[in-house]
Structures are given as C-alpha cells and as structure tokens.
C-alpha cells in the first residue's frame, strides 16, 4: 500500500515521533539504532502459546461502556443526529456499494470537533452512530484525508477474532518468517490484567486537534475498523477485524475508547491507565506486536513508563 511522506518529527501525547523509528518521550535523548540481527543459533524459539491466568482478565463477555444497536446513517444534509446539530456531509460506500459511514465535508476546529464528539457520544445509545475524528493527515489542514483509499473502503468484515487469537497468529507468523531474529519485545502469551476504575464518560473524550467528523453505525466504538474494512495496518498483515478485536479488549480492560482514525493511524482515549509494572510490561508487548512502528530499539522501558501517564495511545503503521 503506498504511503505519503510523513513529517520528520511531531509531538504526540507527550512523545516525540521519530519517523520510522518510533516514539520517545519528549525531551529524552535520541533513539538508538535498530537492533542487530542475531545469529540463528543464538535465538531461542518463540513461545506463541496463549496462557490463561487469573490476572489476564480479557473480560471478553463484559458489556462495553458505550454500546448500542448499530443505527441508520443520516442523509448528507440531515442537519442533526439524535438532537445534535451536525454539519453537511456525504455518505461513504464500500466496495459492495453499501453505505458504511457518514463523513462531514468540513474541517472543524479542535473545540468544535470535541464538542460534537462529546455530544454525539452522549446520544450513541440511541443513535447507534459512533462519532470519531478523521485527521488532516499528511496534508494541508484544510483538506481531509479519509481513512480509506480513493476508491472507498474495502468490504466490511463480519467475523471478529479474539485478541489472544490475533496475537498468537502474529507471533507464529513472525516465528515462521523471522526465525533468525530476536524480537525487541517478548511475545504476548497473556494479556495485561484489567485496570479497575470509573467508566469513560462522554465528557471525558478528547482529541489532539481538529479534523473531520465521521459517523459509523456500530455496536461499540472498537468495531469501527471492522465496519470500515480499514486497511491502515495492512503492512503488518492485520485487517480491520484484527484491530477491532484488540480494541475491544482494550475497551474492556482499560476504558480505552477509539476517538480518531486516519489513513494508517489510530488514537484511543484511555480512561483507566495501568498501575503496576507487570501490567505495563504486558501492555508494552500488546502494543508492540500489533504496531512495532511505535517503537525504537531503546524504547520499551520508556514506553512502559509512558503508559502510566499517557491519557491517549497513538498508533502509526509505516
């Protein structure tokens, strides 16, 4: 999949982005070089077997904080959804000709978009339309970059795997194709335990900057990538359904709610941050194995520290 040229360094959620190398905390020293290739004899076989444990806490049967019956998309000039005034938009159809989303035609300011997202999230249980930001990614701030190619979204995907199944497949693929390379971060064999805390409220949702408004008919926010047939992580062999599986698990365990989706980027608002070092260590592996582009060679320790303070998790696939 072709990729536009990214900005060399941008600040995201208290971190500095370093092109293809990943992130480091703002103000930290430069990221070190990529890890060297180990000889085959020096690398132990990867353990890709998921191990259930009392601390794992996938909570896959838990009712998500934000849940609804997927709703009907508004007309381009509807003017309102659930009593909330919205700008003019357009319907987006997938490869089957089915309308899968409503996209506003205007680039909105940060304050305006935050207000809309909060108001629309507040009526999500009635409308079944999840509001999300579309960034002006890689382009002029006056031009939207929708989270699909020029031809529109791919076909939506109905079958959603579990998060452990996604991680097991990623690890086994790595073991087959990179047997002579030692991974930067251990594979995911058990998920980080759930962090207890309050539910995410609409008033707690935030975005980093302005952009476009996207409305997607879903049962929960995490389902957006699957419904859109999103291919932003295709370079790591992950489908929209795979990303949805992981996002569902993060919603259940950390109140991590999807608030932004771009051509190859995602951002979630985190309600309950991990507190223990063991949680953070497992979560570092969860983040790394779906999005290694977020890491540099010296990054795991910094990343683990960041997980205790970051209120947003941002992902970019090269």
Characterize the structure shown.
It is a single chain. With about 325 residues, this protein is α+β, with helices and mostly antiparallel strands. It is built from seven helices and twelve strands. It has helices at about 110-120, 125, 165-175, 225-230, 240-255, 275-290, 300-305, and strands at about 10, 15, 25, 80, 85, 90-95, 100-105, 130-135, 210-215, 255-260, 265-270, 310-315. The strands form four sheets. A four-stranded antiparallel sheet has the order 6-7-9-8. It has a three-stranded antiparallel sheet with strand order 1-2-3. A hairpin with a 3-residue loop joins β10 (about 255-260) and β11 (about 265-270). α6 (about 275-290) crosses α7. About 45% of the residues are buried. Residues about 1-40 have low confidence and may be disordered.
Tell me the number of strands: 12
Count up the helices. Answer: 7
List low-confidence stretches.
1-41
SS content category: alpha+beta
Q: Return Rg in Å.
A: 19 Å
Percent of residues in β-strands? 15-25%
Helix content: 10-25%
> What about the largest sheet?
4 strands, antiparallel
**Helix and strand run:** EEEEEEEHHEHEHHEEHHE
C-alpha geometry:
globular
Strand arrangement, largest sheet?
A: 6-7-9-8
Q: Kindly, what is the distance between the CA atoms of the first and last residues, rounded to a whole number of angstroms?
A: 10 Å
What is the average of the pLDDT values? 83
Blueprint of the fold:
Elements: E1 11-12, E2 15-17, E3 23-25, E4 80-81, E5 84-85, E6 89-93, E7 99-104, H1 110-122, H2 124-127, E8 129-134, H3 163-177, E9 212-217, H4 224-228, H5 240-254, E10 256-261, E11 265-270, H6 277-290, H7 299-307, E12 312-316
Antiparallel strand pairs: 1-2, 2-3, 4-5, 6-7, 7-9, 8-9, 10-11, 11-12
């Amino acid at each position: 999949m072709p990729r536009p040229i990214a900005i060399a360094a941008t600040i995201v959620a208290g971190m500095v982005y370093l092109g293809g190398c990943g992130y480091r905390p703002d103000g930290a020293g430069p990221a070190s070089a990529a890890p060297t290739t180990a000889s085959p004899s020096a690398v132990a076989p990867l353990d890709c077997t998921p191990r259930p444990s009392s601390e794992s806490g996938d909570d896959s049967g838990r009712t998500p904080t934000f849940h609804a019956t997927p709703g009907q998309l508004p007309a381009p000039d509807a003017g309102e959804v659930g009593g909330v005034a919205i700008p003019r938009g357009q319907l987006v159809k997938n490869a089957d000709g089915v309308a899968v989303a409503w996209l506003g035609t205007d680039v909105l300011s940060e304050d305006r978009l935050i207000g809309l997202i909060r108001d629309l999230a507040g009526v999500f249980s009635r409308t079944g339309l999840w509001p999300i930001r579309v960034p002006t990614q890689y382009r002029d701030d006056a031009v939207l970059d929708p989270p699909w190619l020029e031809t529109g979204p791919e076909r939506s995907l109905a079958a959603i795997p579990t998060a452990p199944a996604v991680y097991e497949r990623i690890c086994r693929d790595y073991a087959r194709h990179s047997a002579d390379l030692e991974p930067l971060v251990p594979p995911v064999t058990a998920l980080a335990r759930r962090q207890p805390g309050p539910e995410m409220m609409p008033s707690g949702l935030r975005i980093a900057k302005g952009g476009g408004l996207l409305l997607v008919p879903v049962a929960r926010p995490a389902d957006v990538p699957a419904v859109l047939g999103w291919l932003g992580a295709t370079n790591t062999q992950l489908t929209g359904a795979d990303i949805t599986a992981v996002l569902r698990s993060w919603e259940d365990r950390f109140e991590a709610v999807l608030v932004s989706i771009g051509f190859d980027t995602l951002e979630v608002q985190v309600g309950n941050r991990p507190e223990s070092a063991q949680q953070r260590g497992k979560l570092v592996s969860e983040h790394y194995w779906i999005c290694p582009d977020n890491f540099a060679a010296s990054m795991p320790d910094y990343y683990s520290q960041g997980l205790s303070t970051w209120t947003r998790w941002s992902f970019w696939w090269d």
